[in-house]
Amino acid sequence: MRRRNSVKVLIPLIALLICGVIVLLERYGVTREEFVWNEEESINLVFSEAVEETPTCLILTNQEDTVSATYEEMMRFVLDDMRISYDVLALTEDTSLDCLSNYQTLVLTFMDWSVIENQLLTICDWVKAGGAMMNLCTPLPNAGFHAVAGKLGVESGGLEYTKIRGVQVVNEQMIGGKTGQVFWYSDDGEEMLETSLNLYLSDNCEVLLASEDGSVPILWKVKYGDGTFVIFNEVITDKYQRGFACLAYSELEDVCIYPVINGSAFYLDDFPAPVPEGNGNYLLRDYGVSVASFCSIIWWPKILEWGENYHIRYTGGIIEEYSDDVAAPFTKNKEEAQFTTFGNMLLNDGGELGFHGYNHMPLCIKGIDENQQYGEYKLWESAEDVKAAMEELYDFSSNLFPREKFMVYIPPSNIISEVGLNTLLEACPDINVIASTYFSDTEAKVFEQEFEVDEKGIIHTPRVVSSLGLTEYQKIAALAELNYHYVQSHFMHPDDLLDEDRGARTGFPVLSKMFEEYLEWIYTSAPNIRNLTGSELGTAVLKYDKLTLSRERSGNTLSVKLGGFSGSAEFLLRVNEGCVESIEGGSFERITGNLYAVHATSDKLEIILKE
Q1: Per-residue pLDDT for 63 more than 50?
Q2: Mapping DSSP to helix (H, G, I), strand (E, B) and coil, where does residue 240 land?
Q3: What is this structure's pTM?
């Protein structure tokens, strides 16, 4: 009891101290202007004309194989994002691969290589003469695969499948992957996928990924004559697999450059929001304080500490109140102190405020979006009620933060309908960035996004990982996205410590250490990744989405012409033969292995290589 009473005495003192700090920050000029992006990085950008490139890659598919269709779609997506031009050839009984001479790379999207058994020698001769081939999934252990297995570096085995629980990084060609580091497929590390062939490779193979114990090669490359094979020994179609497909393709070419977003963003959902009431069992266990006290004197100072240590610039999602009202009129929240106190601290720390909702009801309409009904959430009575609620939120927030332009919307529980989204944009026309989730959840019918700009001009910036204690699946997803889009996107809630599904039983002392390990991993792996707010990440996605490339190699120089250019652009560059000597039109830095980050300041890059 003595401990709780002392905390109650401290709360008003701490509140006064917080307010005093805000006054001092504003008085001495530490305001948000010092943290905003360069004016050139505004949302109103002018883009140069697009450029085109002759297809250099051929995707070979088997339309009679449903797995092939899935992998074809994945590879199209990856190559589109990498701005690699390609053609697609569907196999028929009389398919000829004489056209291979027109391409630099070949991608197989099917498991049964016997369907091209008559063409395998043609492919091998083409690779030997300087071509580069990769597959996207484990070959079937039949005559087709074994006819060429030796040329792929397979020394023995490959007759049966073995169970794999995760992947081990074998050499440091991935951002965030240290030699020997293991990333598990499942949260408990016990799920086994029988999708890899048990085989052994010759010494001339370069293994990139292996099974969790290192015994089975999962991804490797091998020189064959003047060309290269890159081989996947894995069958996974999860969305994160795009990052590994990107890695595999980048190993095909002597020099591979592709555009990325280059941004790290952290979202605080339900913040600022009404101060929670009551107690949390595990907060009482660990600290002996109420929920409100925990948020004010333990959670928030730790959030600020992380922000200072890692230069994080948080994006807060405002919730005006927690009622389940879904019909107008909507009551204005009169208790404004916690909003202004915490909101101004976030802004003065270089952050940004966006909208999460008037309340926590997803914007789905009765009579229209019954298929979006989930859990105890209520459907809104009408689109007019949604509009009225969002207009109330806008008025409430604008009065408290008159200098803030609210451009980011975070859907509650990542759920929103098309009608709800259109109504939101009508009520709040400044919103042009939607931050939902990167991964789907069929049960909750969440709004799954890609990093893109849609036909309405809305910028989609999905959050990839969440909570303080990341699951094993989230860790492998974070690894993949660092190497695919060079992006990190995370969100958490102040009330995570009240929900056992989000780690409440584990407790904040343990979870905060786990999160610090994640932060250390991110900023050690990518020390110069750009820390961005939600709208700034939106601008980065916009610039990335518009960019087109044309590449030309001559001797030791790779010339890159950029279309859809708007003053700057970000790239990852993998140099498999030699290294970078200099770059005209931009700057570069080595990240890991043979991978570089490139910042372009001109629409023409001249990359000078040396052996």
Answers
A1: yes
A2: coil
A3: 0.92
